Amino acid sequence: xxxxxxxxxxxxxxxFAAIERRVAALLSTEQDVVITQxxxxxxxxxxxxxxxxxxxxxLNIVTGPYGQTFGDWLRDxxxxxxDLQVPFHTAVTAGQVNDAFRAHPEIDxxxxxxxxxxxxxxxxxxxxxxxxxxxxxxxxxxxxxxxxAEPVLPDAWGVDMCVIGAQKAxxxxxxxxxxSVSTRAWERFAANPAAPRRSYxxxxxxxxxxxxxxxRALPHAPAQLEMLALEACVERLEAEGxxxxxxxxxxxxxxxxxxxxxxxxxxxxxxxxxxxxxxxATTLRTPSxxxxxxxxxxxxxxxPSLPLVAGGGALAKEMIRVNHYGPDATREAVLGSLEAxxxxxxxxGAEVDVEGARRAVGEVWA
Length: 366
Fold this sequence. Notes:
By secondary structure, the chain is an alpha/beta fold. It contains 13 helices and 13 strands. Strands 1-9-8-7-4-2-3 form a 7-stranded mixed β-sheet, with helices on both faces. The protein has a 4-stranded antiparallel β-sheet with strand order 10-11-13-12, covered by helices on one side. The chain has a two-stranded antiparallel ribbon with strand order 5-6. α1 (13-26) runs parallel beside α9.
């Protein structure tokens, strides 16, 4: 008996290339786009290991846990790493990046996460890109969480390596990702003897065997289900309209923030300034003495399908994350999350205003 998810015809090179072109259009880029057959950590690490090497000085901007991971990779490549760390409740500024260049003019590589879903902040990439471009450094951007939720424009922003994934705002699977690569990034990769070659991490293999070969023969068998799912994600964005999808995510973020403030009970936005808050996830700080993990468990007991998680690692006791991205960027998901959190807070003895939260959500969404 045939099965639509199992009995799939091989994905042709032409179909693969057509999906690449649609991803390039999503990014409004003229750069080469490579669709990588794995979760987005694959191209993120591949870019760093190809672009950084002994003798490089990398500015690693840390606004959340992924920035910390990138710093580890950069050091492992032998690069001298300058960490620019900012509190997780805020965003980095272009002025801070410029100050780092003034203190370390030898910086030739910059790594940044656009939106940090784990901490709920988003960084002003357009302004930072101007600073990086003025200093001539190579710019590496993790736009996995932001793609689909806010503009991602690598060409306009001077981004040399822009990595995206399907699993957040695009509402797809985690097993496929993509990266746009500028001409000067390819040149840096090729000039680096330590860049991965003949390796699953190698972007140069894709350049030499796929792009330079006219996209006629794939380097290896593609993951058919994930590729078809990525194509479906792009089709859905095209059908609804990217601006409409981004507006829906922005509404979800603003409504969650307003609703949490109206709910009370000691709950407050973790990211202090609304302009620094990411549209994919709103992080909330629990009141003193209330364990975030326990509060989330109580809320999920009300409705286990809600997009609620506690913060990771050291943040597990004080941070709640409302993941209003992809299919959860809806008024219903926001309202349900706030109502369940209100019930869990009330169970701790806190005074909450669930009706006030509902009104705030309705006003913002309208």
